[in-house]
Write a sequence for this structure.
């Protein structure tokens, strides 16, 4: 799966984590591993322009999704029979998201992870225009985020434990000496 990220927002963000959560969501949704996704982070004025142009709504917003290949019943994103496809673009606005994160009482990074999953789900055909759709999409979004965070936290804990074990065992730097203590 190819995920490209481009930060034109002027806000420093952990791009690796954004790609990681997008990849996790796509894998969990069984999207074809040959699919391509683009994530673009933009400034407020650029997002406001996109919001007006494509949604005919004034002002900036947090996330917009632009699907490239129409999804229909004959061509599913989880089908391995289909050739490589471009899912589309997820556009995030960190400045806008920063205010939402503050209001929600969590870090900007958490808000961007949520918005990334939200945008990916839109690309896969999920919507929240109707109450039933909203419940389904937001439940799935929350489930994917919780699983990704759990996996990420376990990986970080394993990494910290390995580093501590290496320090205690005196194996730090052994690979520099051919794997043996000299």
């Amino acid at each position: 799966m190819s995920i490209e990220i481009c930060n034109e927002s002027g806000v420093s963000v952990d791009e690796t984590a954004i790609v990681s959560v997008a990849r996790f969501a796509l894998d969990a949704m069984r999207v074809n591993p040959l699919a391509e996704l683009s994530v673009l982070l933009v400034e407020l004025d650029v997002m406001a322009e996109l919001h007006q142009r494509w949604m005919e709504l004034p002002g900036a917003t947090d996330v917009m999704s632009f699907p490239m290949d129409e999804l229909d019943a004959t061509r599913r994103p989880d089908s391995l029979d289909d050739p490589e496809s471009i899912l589309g673009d997820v556009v995030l606005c960190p400045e806008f998201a920063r205010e939402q994160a503050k209001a929600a009482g969590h870090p900007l990074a958490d808000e961007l992870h949520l918005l990334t999953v939200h945008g990916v789900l839109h690309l896969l055909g999920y919507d929240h225009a109707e109450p039933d759709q909203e419940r389904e999409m937001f439940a799935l979004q929350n489930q994917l985020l919780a699983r990704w965070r759990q996996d990420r936290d376990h990986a970080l804990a394993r990494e910290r434990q390995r580093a501590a074990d290496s320090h205690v065992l005196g194996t730090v730097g052994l690979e520099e000496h051919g794997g043996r203590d000299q």
Remarks:
- The two ends are 43 Å apart (CA to CA).
- Confidence is low (pLDDT under 50) at residues 71-76.
